[in-house]
Design goal:
mainly alpha, 6 helices, about 80% helix
Length: about 160
């Protein structure tokens, strides 16, 4: 287990350059989907750009650590699967988390005092509502281009890791 954890730690250039590239790919994916859906006719295009770039950027360190941990000393098919799952799960979870935090900030002005029982229920249900809304409205922005990026990046990461 110790050797596996040590092998999972990526070099700094892979973290920094990879995070910027993956964030940019998720940004391009979201913008392409918005363009295909309605020709970029939305007043929230800047917010969407920040959300999807930030989701990809902040998810990358977790992606590399988890993918490298799961793929350590495995066959290429298993490495591909490990990176595929890591890329998709971490990117979706981080982007959904950022969306939920934005949602929370917006609705917090109408919530009860921090720490109260009512506040706790409001926090939980606001979070659940935001995750549902992201699942319905946000996930489609990863398609079709994001899925192709997912396949290509999983393949490249699986080939690079030995």
């Amino acid at each position: 287990m110790g050797e596996r954890l040590k092998a999972a730690y990526p070099p700094y250039p892979d973290l920094i350059i990879g995070a910027l590239l993956w964030g940019a790919l998720m940004l391009v994916s979201a913008m392409a989907a918005v363009y295909l859906r309605n020709g970029m006719q939305t007043s929230h295009i800047g917010d969407l750009a920040i959300l999807y770039f930030g989701g990809g950027l902040l998810a990358w360190p977790f992606i590399l650590l988890l993918g490298r941990f799961l793929a350590h000393r495995r066959a290429i098919e298993t490495r591909f699967a490990a990176f595929f799952v890591s890329l998709s799960a971490c990117t979706i979870l981080m982007t959904a988390f950022l969306f939920a935090m934005d949602y929370r900030i917006f609705y917090s002005r109408w919530h009860a005092s921090t720490g109260s029982l009512t506040w706790f229920f409001q926090l939980v249900f606001t979070g659940a509502s935001s995750v549902y809304q992201f699942a319905v409205l946000g996930l489609p922005l990863f398609f079709p281009l994001g899925f192709l990026c997912l396949l290509a990046t999983s393949f490249v990461l699986a080939k690079r890791m030995r």
